[in-house]
Design goal:
This protein is mainly α and 224 residues long. It folds into two domains: 5-71; 81-223, no CATH class. Helix content is 80%, strand content 0%. The protein contains nine helices and no strands. The protein has helices spanning 5-17, 23-40, 47-61, 73-98, 102-118, 122-147, 153-162, 164-180, 187-223. α4 crosses α7. The longest helix is centred in the C-terminal third of the chain and has 37 residues, at 187-223. The protein starts with a helix and ends with a helix.
Amino acid sequence: MELTKQQIKDIDHRLENEGIKYWDIRIEMLDHVVSDVEQKLKPETSEYEFKELVQESFESLGWKENFNGGGFEKDFNKRNVSYAKKVRKKYGQEIKSKFTSIFFLLGVFFFWGFLFLIHNNSFFIKLTFTLEIIAVVLFLIFFMVKYQLFKSAQLNAVFSLAVIPLSVHNLLIFTPQILFDYEKMNLTHVAVTLTLIIPFLYIGFNFMLKEAKATQSIYNELIE
């Protein structure tokens, strides 16, 4: 017997109240609970019996009593680590896929050619550098607002990998200034840094969008 939309929402809200703050982990657990309860639910099942079935399913997922009443701490942490491992594997596959795509490689080579032509032009290098920063900031703001970045285990893991090029970018840009006391950034150095970093930023942010859309689609089918 299938659960109603309201019953599914009630289970989802309880999972959230039990400390499952990431909505993608809740989706995974919700799907398990819904399937489990639907197998046991009968037309004559009362509201009290329904809650008992939900509780039994929760316990089978790893719900344990604690001083706050109960929770999924151990199972939540285990699933969070699992998401991080899956994301690292998928991200590696994404990088491999991009660097074996003729269209992506052509785009990278055209971009490299553009930077090679302008690497001695102060205005265009600074413009490219500024546009990169603006694009990254706008993308991250859009992404956090639209996909509730910090409420998703998967997107947190994706985000941590996707922004690694930003850390490398800062390291490559500013370390020579600190170590060699440059008064201003060398244009060729900035161009080379952009050449190395921007392709990986593109891969990371494109990967973030794909993962966010896929996860959000599953959530909408179950909840909305």
